[in-house]
Amino acid sequence: MSVKPFSERKLPGVICMFDVDGTLTPARRSATPEILAALKKLREYTAVAIVGGSDFNKIKEQLQEPGLEFVDTYDYVFSENGLTAYRMGKQLDKASFIKHVGEEEYKKLVNWILRYLSEVDIPVKRGTFVEFRNGMINVSPIGRGCSQEEREAFFAYDKIHNIRPKMVEALRKEFDYMGLTFSIGGEISFDVFPRGWDKTYALGRIANDGFKEIHFFGDKTYPGGNDYEIFSDERTIGHSVTSPADTLKLLEELFFSKA
After folding, report:
1. pLDDT confidence of residue 27
2. pLDDT at 72
3. How does this chain assemble (predicted)?
4. 1 in a domain, yes or no?
């Protein structure tokens, strides 16, 4: 069975929503042909949505299927937790972090972060410590310009020294009045966004599309992880995975073996 183009496709009653890093791909790397083939096959049975915290271009780099327009590959693409979103190949209205918090409060937040990071002692520091995105900011103590080897070394260091958890706790105390959420994800960073703008924001984007079952697959499903809110939401059936291989195994058990 081949998947019909959007112009002929009627959405089924079940949707599978997927985190990206650690669920469909290794952190910041591209999906394997096996994952891309499984997602294509899954669209024969359910609708498929990608729900990532990264911006649209980063997700596109990781999940682009050769020979296809990226937004035509999945039923929904929710970047920045759904604040930038595509439904059936068409872009939906965007939400804006700066408009929500205001320019002056935004500057206070960024200045505080940069001062804090100037005093954090870690083995190496690179570049792009604060990355502005449309619906959030991403904060990286080591800097997003680090190499893959440096990324992995920081991830191991952070597990021992809790650089990110300590910074998140300090931010919560300092900016509690702003109503922000601080969510640790991936290996080197955490996201900052208005409360309610976590991945459950994407659920509002599909609320009127008639889904009777919403499955979510993610690896950071523990409290404080950036998949926790949508994983534990009463509207979803949450699946916690440990790797892309684990995701493939679950898809086989839940959908393909029953076909």
Report:
1. 81
2. 85
3. Homodimer.
4. no
| Burial zone of 212 (CB within 10 Å; 0-12 exposed, 13-18 middle, 19+ buried) | exposed
Task: Tell me if 133 is assigned to a ligand binding site.
Answer: yes
Tokens representing residue 140 in the block: 């990286």
Q: What does the pLDDT read at residue 5?
A: 64
> Which CATH number does the domain housing residue 138 bear?
3.30.1240.20
Q: Please identify which of the residues 21, 75, 158, 198 carries the catalytic annotation.
A: 21
* Number of domains observed in the structure of the chain: 2
Residue with tokens 């005093």: 119
In a domain, 130, yes or no: yes
**Residues of the chain predicted below pLDDT 50:** 1
User: What are the structure tokens assigned to 183, written together?
Assistant: 């969510």
Q: Do 75 and 138 fall within a single domain? A: no
pLDDT of residue 3: 66
pLDDT score at 259: 60
User: Does 205 show up as a binding residue in the annotation?
Assistant: no
Do the annotations mark residue 151 as ligand-binding?
Answer: yes
Same domain, 86 and 122: no
- CATH code of the domain containing 44: 3.40.50.1000
Whether 121 is a known active-site residue: answer no
Dist. CA 38–CA 197, nearest whole Å: 29
Q: Any catalytic annotation for residue 72?
A: no
Q: How many CB atoms lie within 10 A of CB 98?
A: 14
Predicted structure pTM score? 0.75
- Determine if residue 19 is labeled as part of a ligand binding site: yes
Calculate the CA 73 to chain-centre distance. 18
Other beta carbons within 10 angstroms of residue 145's beta carbon come to 12
Shared domain for 211 and 239, answered yes or no, is yes
Domain interval for residue 154: 97-194
